Amino acid sequence: MNSTVVSYLSQAPGYGFLTSKLSEVLGFDATGIVNFLIFFIVTLVMVNIMAAIGGLGTYAERKISADLQMRQGPNRVGPFGILQFLADGVKMILKEDIIPRQADKFMFHLAPFLCLVGVFMTLAVLPFSSGLALTNLNIGVFYLLGVSSLVGVGIFLGGYSSNSKWSMLGGMRGASQIVSYEVPVTLTILSVVLMAGSLSFDVITEAQGGFPHEWFILHNPFTFIGFFVLFIGALAETNRAPFDLPEAESELVSGYHTEYSGMRFGFFALAEYIEVFVVCGVCAALFLGGYKVPFNLGTGDFLVKAFPAIEPMLAKQVGNFLQLGAFVTKTLALYYVVIWIRWTLPRLRVDHLMVLCWKYLTPIALFNLVGCAVWLYAFEGKSIWYLIFKSGAAAAGAHH
Amino acid sequence: MFLNIMFLLAAGATIGGSFLTATSKNLMHACIYLLLTLFGVSGLYATLGADFLAATQLVVYAGGVVILMLFAIMLTGGVREFVNKFGIDKVASMGTVKTYSIAGFMVVIMSFVIMKILAPIFKSYAPGELPGFSTTVEKIGTLLITDHVLAFEISSILLLGALVGAAVISRPGRTR
């Protein structure tokens, strides 16, 4: 498989041409420079697209909430108000940047960037398609858990440095919530890692199939429960309702970003919306088959078979676009559910939050982990559909 | 080339971060610089081919330990101005004659040990080749439950003890 986006694109004929031309011009082997340029450009595009997705997330949030409450939502800027997020962005940039006099300036400046950096670092391993994953680390899941914890530090620092009691309470709640919910989330991810036998997103996705019955969520009863544990934990880790205690607007004004204004507040909001996209993508990649397309359309082999004259790279590109579509569709479906939940459920109380984490989700996650291990041992990793089919065939008198 | 640049960046982050951690007057800032140091160490691991260790460093330290440190500093009110009423930096007394003599003794022993370790490096220095990059997850996992299973189990007992201790301490007192 492709270990990075560069090793995928290096199969294209243009890559060899470019490298040899540049080597001729520069007088030395230009492979490194070309690889660096590809990485640079792809990363730049990825970061900008994700920032746009984060911005569109705010639009989606307002539009869906309006839909759920039978209102219109933003409908003035652009068709259906879709450019509202650009208007908001301009407003944020033009606003005065206010820093409280008693605030700790260094940490006040640092906190939004820690949040944003932590989220953008996770994009490096998110598998958009078999070709378009910036890098396919063989510790991908673990890396993602590690760098996403920077967001917790950012939220805590934002709350602490503002020198305001609401911010302080919000920051404390945010940090404790993120640290606590990392336990059930990690245990649930561990059960998937157990099934696939690898920490790499690529291997985990390839272990599943294109159809729902080949996904890990429907593999056995334990993973079915595990998906919901992971989803609830992900909601709590991204501070989304019903776990939005860090920014509980009815009690804490706005929580950890009460004192922030202008683009610094915008960075917090952007980080939150992109993080929701990332965790939805992780849920999709781990449990919902990720970028897999039914009938193996994603590899592009069908095009080669149907039109033998076609360039193999072009067929692969088409397959990759199908994979990208599958991944983004699953992720955005989960994104819709996240917003839907936010505008449906009331907020939890702090002690209920901790009870849910430590008394329910963690034991369930542990039970799932053991259950998955026993399932793997007892049925040799076969899915429940395989077992049902086999027993049905045996009952019908088939020999095997 | 690229790896060398990354190594130098990581080493710079480690050294600069640890220097700032030691010299920073504000405990909270020191904690942030410590985070930078830990990231630098993680980068060092990554450039030296220990990918799993690098990620573990991030998960354990950046995710858990630094946040707990920040919590502890905040809840104990550790941020104070270390300046006395004359505007001069306050220097806490660092110890007594006993602690200084023990520390001096330890410095002598440690320097002997370090010299013993460093001596062959200075005598015949030949830059070694790093082995080709390969995943370390399987190897670490296999070693942990075969050769080092005793250490693994003992560390888990240590963690269990810490957990039980925390539960006992934080438990509300029973009224008799």
Overview of this protein structure:
- The complex is a heterodimer of chains A (400) and B (176).
- The longest helix of chain A has 38 residues, at 31-68.
- Chain A has helices spanning 5-9, 13-26, 31-68, 84-94, 105-122, 140-161, 165-196, 201-206, 221-237, 262-287, 301-306, 312-342, 350-379, 384-395.
- Chain A is mainly α and 400 residues long.
- Chain A has one domain.
- Helix content of chain A is 67%, strand content 0%.
- The model of chain A has no long low-confidence stretch (mean pLDDT 84).
- Chain B is mainly alpha-helical and 176 residues long.
- Chain B folds into 3 domains: 1-80, Four Helix Bundle (Hemerythrin (Met), subunit A), CATH 1.20.120.1200; 95-125; 133-176.
- Helices cover 72% and strands 0% of the residues of chain B.
- Chain B contains 6 helices and no strands.
- Chain A binds chain B through residues 32, 36, 104, 106-107, 110, 137-139, 142-143, 145-147, 149-150, 152-153, 156-157, 160, 172, 175-176, 178-179, 182, 199, and chain B through 1-2, 26, 28-29, 32, 35, 51-52, 55-59, 62-64, 66-68, 70-71, 74, 135, 137.
Order of helices and strands of chain B: HHHHHH
Span from first to last CA of chain B? 70 Å
**Most extensive chain interface and residues per partner:** A-B, 28 and 25 residues
- The domain tally of chain A reads 1
List the helices and strands and how they pair.
The complex is a heterodimer of chains A (400) and B (176).
Chain A: H1 5-9, H2 13-26, H3 31-68, H4 84-94, H5 105-122, H6 140-161, H7 165-196, H8 201-206, H9 221-237, H10 262-287, H11 301-306, H12 312-342, H13 350-379, H14 384-395
Chain B: H1 2-23, H2 27-47, H3 51-75, H4 97-123, H5 137-145, H6 149-170
Helix pairs in contact in B: 1-2, 2-3
